[in-house]
Design a protein that fits this description.
Radius of gyration: 20 Å
Shape: globular
Number of strands: 15
Number of helices: 17
Distance between the termini: 37 Å
CATH class of one domain: Alpha Beta
Low-confidence stretches: none
Strand content: 15-25%
Helix content: 40-55%
Bound molecules: pyridoxal-5'-phosphate
């Protein structure tokens, strides 16, 4: 089949918590002052209780609340496509399938967790949620989710991408979100960086620090679009759906490709399959693809580090390029992060996830091939997964092997066309 759908009744009813199946839990976050594992009291000002519980839960399946499911049904299940035209173009014996999260209401996978996080916040009386956003996809998702659950939203949008992708600002404002370019003059850390450079491009690490500074008195909570266990948990609906969809075609993947920024879309598609590797001795390779210019998993050190630039978060055991690392100005803003999800780092260390990186110009070429063959314009982030899959499919052609490849297309690229224009005109700043 070219396109495989699921009925509303077939949508998975629970999130899948991979931690319950791991032989060894990932190392815990530490309090930077004591170097002891953090207690819930350190997270309490930031997140509602339900999300803190999910962060440390050992339950295998966590039920998706009805109120969230109602909204999921407006765009889920997202389609799974067989990339027949891409396969033909490459002349590969491999089968390539892609899950299209770009079909969500906001155009990316981020809405899956935004809705869950907004729901639990609303339940516990939060009035405003503040957050950071890189390329703007997370800000869009949280703007919609907070509006649907009748709360306010304050977004610190990394300045480089605020300027590159201004229509994402307009979109957030359509939902009444307040959007500030980061670094901003609204926080101490923002003012510090603006003093150094009035046009500072910003980074996710700085924007996280700004949002965290705004958290106060129980009514303004903070929300993160990737990295943390509960965020990865919410994204597992992607892989569970994909598994059901592939079953309808009598398929199971040999290898899965996802792009890697903080780890949420890769985890979302891959964790339900890695669960099979652990509990059912299935064999699936999972590959994280990141930009060569922000090589967190391929070149970063596996160590305890801060999640933000101002060093206000707990210490996380993760691959890191250093919390002061400001990534080069690439178009895939969602991948410009110095750190990684501790859970993904742990799985990389244990050999469940492989890593690779690719040059921006090669990523953009892969995006163009995909657009011309499949007719879907991917986000530049998602194009990293496409690049990985194309390389794999060409390897299959060389060796005459018939693998089944699964890709997560984490978002669409309609609001990233400025970046594609720079590529087409040969004007990309980073090659
Ligand atoms: C945010 C984003 C990413 C990167 O974040 P992960 O947590 O690594 O998934 C990738 N693709 C899109 C479309 C995004 O919006």
């Amino acid at each position: 089949m070219t396109k495989i759908s699921l009925s509303d009744k077939e949508i998975p009813t629970h999130y899948y918590n991979i931690i319950s199946d791991l032989p060894e839990s990932p190392p815990p976050p530490l309090n930077p002052e004591t170097n002891e594992p953090i207690g819930p009291e350190m997270l309490k000002p930031l997140f509602p209780k339900a999300l803190i519980e999910q962060e440390v839960s050992q339950e295998k399946r966590i039920e998706i609340p009805d109120e969230v499911m109602e909204i999921y049904k407006r765009y889920r299940a997202t389609p799974l496509y067989r990339a027949t035209r891409l396969e033909k173009h490459l002349g590969t014996p491999a089968k390539i399938y892609y899950k299209y999260e770009g079909a969500s209401l906001t155009g990316s996978h981020k809405l899956n967790t935004a809705l869950a996080q907004a729901y639990y916040n609303k339940q516990e009386g939060t009035k405003t949620i503040t957050t950071e956003t890189g390329a703007g996809q997370w800000g869009m998702a949280l703007s919609l989710a907070t509006k649907f659950f009748d709360m306010k939203c304050l977004v610190f949008y990394v300045r480089l991408h605020y300027k590159q992708k201004p229509y994402r600002v307009s979109y957030m404002r359509m939902f009444d979100a307040e959007v500030l370019p980061s670094p901003s003059n609204q926080t101490n850390i923002g003012r510090k960086f603006l003093k150094e450079d009035i046009n500072h491009p910003g980074s996710l690490g700085i924007a996280i620090s700004e949002a965290m500074e705004k958290v106060s008195d129980g009514t303004i909570k903070y929300s993160l679009g990737s990295v943390l266990n509960h965020v990865l948990l919410h994204q597992t609906i992607i892989g569970q759906e994909a598994k059901l969809q592939l079953e309808k075609d009598d398929e199971y993947p040999d290898v899965i490709y996802g792009c890697f920024g903080g780890g949420s879309n890769l985890s979302g598609i891959a964790f339900p399959f890695i669960g099979d590797v652990i509990t059912k001795k299935k064999k699936v390779r999972v590959v994280a693809v990141e930009p060569e210019s922000c090589p967190t998993l391929t070149k970063g050190e596996y160590k305890y580090d801060f999640g933000d630039t101002a060093e206000t978060t707990p210490l996380f055991k993760m691959h890191s390029l250093g919390s002061d690392f400001i990534p080069p100005k690439i178009q895939a803003g969602g991948l410009r992060y110095h750190g990684a999800a501790p859970l993904v780092s742990h799985l990389v260390e244990k050999g469940y996830i492989e890593t690779m990186s690719a040059k921006q110009s090669d990523i953009m070429k892969a995006a163009k091939i995909f657009t011309q063959t499949e007719g879907i314009l991917p986000a530049p982030e998602s194009a990293h997964a496409i690049k990985g899959a194309i390389d794999e499919a060409l390897q299959c052609k060389k060796n005459g092997t018939k693998k089944t490849i699964l890709i997560n297309i984490s978002g669409n690229g309609f609001l990233d066309l400025k970046g594609y224009e720079e590529f087409l005109d040969g004007k990309l700043e980073v090659k």
